[in-house]
Amino acid sequence: MVKKRTCIFISGQGSNLKNLIMYSRDYNFPIKINLVISNNKNAFGVKYAKKYKIPHIIINTKIKNYDKEIFLNLKKYKISFVCLAGYMKIISNKLIQKYQKKIINIHPSLLPKFKGLNTFSRVLKNRERKTGCTVHYVNEKLDSGSTITQKTFFLNSGDDVLSLKLKTQKLEHKAFPEAIVKIFRYI
After folding, report:
1. Which terminus of the chain has fewer Cβ atoms in its 10 Å neighbourhood, N or C?
2. Is the pLDDT at 187 greater than 80, yes or no?
């Protein structure tokens, strides 16, 4: 099997990155992680890239034309597939157009509900009965691309932001690899 050369974009803890690294070590998993990009030099997830000897770069998204540096690195590492795993920056339309249907994101809600940030507090404020996560293709509109897979759970009366985050991450660790397998099953 020829694995798809993949870049994972992160901003924080990197739990989904770590999970995808573990899956990618399986011969039958369709991607190989060849690059990690972070917009946060203090992102804990960068440690996983170092630990597993995956090339990684930190992009300063405050500078003009930072996406040029992203493009150069994606080209340098021959990246054909991109996963946004807790990347807290909107990517450019140029990148979306260049990688049409080749960029996926994981979002901690049942899209189309609760696009954007502060998902868990909004779920609680809205008194939702169930929530979960969505893996979707990235398009030009925030958290609006077509859904690949969703995982759900019911809320308990004692749930708070932290418990929702932990329950959602557990589902994300199943949903992200499932979505990747689903995408490449028929290619």
Report:
1. C
2. no
